[in-house]
Each structure stands twice: as C-alpha cells, then as structure tokens.
Amino acid sequence: MTQLTFPEGFLWGTATASYQIEGAADEDGRGPSIWDTFSQTPGKTWRGQTGRVACDHYHRTEEDVALMASLGLDTYRFSVAWPRIQPDGTGPVNPAGIDYYDRLVDLLVEAGIKPMPTLYHWDLPQSFEDRGGWPERETAERFGDYAAIVADRLADRVHTWWTLNEPWCSAFLGYGDGHHAPGRTEPVAALKAAHHLNLAHGLATQALRAAGAERVSIALNPTQPRGDEEAVRIVDTLANRVFFDPILKGEYPAELFERTAVHTDWSFVQDGDLEQINQRIDLLGVNYYNPAWFRYNPDAPESQVQPGSAGVEGYRPEELPVTDMGWPIEPTGLTDLLVRIHKDYGVPTMVTENGAAYPTGPGEDGEVDDVERVDYLRSHIAAVHDAIEEGADVRGYTAWSLMDNFEWAFGYDKRFGIVHVDYATQKRTLKSSAKFYAKVIADHGVER
Ligand code: IFM
Fold it and tell me: What is the pLDDT of residue 107?
C-alpha cells in the first residue's frame, strides 16, 4: 500500500441538500416546492415517498453538526431551500427561514467547519412552476434577487457559494424525460430551462459578488462519455458544453444549435445573456459517480432526456461492477474528467459530490460495515490524486452524502450516506465508511 498525500489546503467535506434531509416541510412559513408537489403525485416516487420528514435535520441540526465535527470535516456543502426564504419565490423574506440558515452557518463556524451553501438544489418554489418554471425567463431573474437576500445575511461567514447544483438534472430530468420534478416531457422546455438556469447562475454570481461573497462557483454533473469518437463528441456537446461553454467561455457551441434545430431556433437567448452568464467563477464544482458509454448509430432515435441526441445510443459494458443504483464503478472516469476540465477550460475544480448507494444496514452488533462504499471512496479519492498528479488544480473532495436521505424518485430505497439513518427512530450511526473517511481527513490522504 502506498500513502497518497494531498496538497496543503486541499479541503475534505460532505454534502447534503435541503429537500433530501430537512423535513419540516410545512414549518416556520416554508412554502411548497415542485418536489413537494411531484412526490405527492401518485406514481412519481418509490412507494409514494416524500421529503416531508426526511432525516428531520431541521430539528436535529445541532446533533448533525456535532456529527460532522466528530468526523473532522473541513467543509460542509448544504443547500438553502428557496421556499423557506421566499415561500412564494418572490416578495418578502420569511424571517424564520433565513434565521434557520443563519444559525446553521453559526453552528458550522463554531465547529470549525467551513460553510458552503448551494442556493438551488432542485426545490423550486411551486409558484414559479405554476407560471411556467425554468423555461420562463422570470424564474432566472427572481433567482438573482433571492441570491442577494441570502448573501446579504450569510456572506460574512460563507467560505464558498454554489449557485446551482446539477442544472443538467433540473433541465433534462425535470423537463426532458420527466423523472424529476416538475415531471414534464417537453424537449423545447428542457432547452429553454438549460439556458435560463445558466442565466440564473450568472445573475446570482453577480448578486453574490455585490454582497461581498469571497468565492463563487456552480456544481455541475458533467457526463464522462466513453465510446466512439462521434458519439462522445455529441454527448459532450449536448450534456456538458451546454453548461461549460456559456459559463466559462461566454458562448454556446454551434453544434448544440445544429443538433437541436429540429426543436428550437434558440431565439429565447437574448442579446447580452451570454455576457451575464460568463461571470468569473473561482472554481468549478464537479459531481461524479460513473462514466457513461455511447456509440454512434444513425438509426438510433433521440433519447427523451437529451434533445438533439438522435444517432447516439447508450450501452453498458457488462463486465464492470455496479452500485445499488446499477451505476458502473469506474474511478478513472473521475481522473479523466478533472484532467479534461483543466486542459480545456483551465479552471480550478473541487469534487462537490462523489459516492455510492449500498443498502448495508446495522448488523447484530449494531455496526454498519459498508465495505463496498469504503472501496468506492478509497478508489475515487485515489483517482482525484491521480488527476492532481496529471496537473489538474483540484481544491477539495466532497463525499455524497453525509447521511442516508431522500433519494428523489427512488425515495428512501437508496442509501448514499456515510452515516446510517434509521428512519423510524431517526437514529444516526457512523458506518465503516464514515470512520474510513475520518481517517482520510486526519491523514490528509489515502492508502492505495
Ligand atoms: O442524491 C443526489 C443528489 O441530490 C444530486 N447528485 C446525485 C445524488 C445521487 O443520485
């Protein structure tokens, strides 16, 4: 075994998201979000489960921050629920909502953990969706206002801000194949949503800077495509460069317009939008779980999730092991992705999510020995080290997730936590992976 040591200042964190852990869905003035509506719609989530109670983190915040401190975390990436701050998405601030995050930030700072809020992790106030949702420009504009409200209160203590989490999911799962809220299946709406999410990022970045934010970023979930050259280029354009290029270069790739011309002429991109989007960011957040494989086949129909993808078909190599999500395990994909972003865009990165679902629960002795997750984390942390060795400027690693939680359409069936949650009692138990991760943090490195 060789000990791989990380550069000084490299940060170790965990991440969660408001709707996945908080619960308290109707408390202290929180308004409904698209995920409340979607999860209460029959057939949309596993066993009709919702985030109404989730991990009850809203009432157990102190206990959970103490848990984080016991792991020695440098950072914690949580998300702010827009419907707690502005129950209708616009208009007056709900004092109890902003007070809640103010207290969370204080608790983190007291525990020596750098707070990293994400402003949007999918819980759009329902009132926006009632007026058209992300395909409407108004949603992006109001997001800028909301960012200013949150930053005004928290910016003095926040280490790094993340405007959006995985806008690909919001646009293409939310409005393309409909597996996520709001559950629409409209290709044009998905493309409009992608643009308005980019615009929302740009407007929020400017609002955050104006309020004195020190570091601003966005957490993307780029696909790491593998397969033949043609298919890889197309997927990269449609799924990755639709975000990378406007945010980091101020342009959309011409091939994106060509391949989606069957759906739209993109006239919803207004003069000046690309300048608004192309704001300086301090680093790029990269969420990575697995690569995806594609081949070019001129007869393949467009996949519903990705408008413009006609001619590309996905496949899965049989030989790779998979997690409980059925996602193949391939750590080199993370190295390749980080190195590629470094080479093509020259921006520092942070791994803002990485982890694996496994069902392991407590044994007779009460211990949760999730050996597969330990292997997954070990190999992927080593893959980050490989990327650094290859020249990528990677500033940190964030395990998804701190605790088991509401895994969207999969409900509570899939467990990503390094901390086990017994949903009947809300008891938290450190899994072997949490103990392993605490040692990685203490050693500032991992053995391979
Ligand atoms: O749980 C999600 C998270 O909300 C966003 N990224 C992927 C995770 C696992 O599916």
Answer: 99
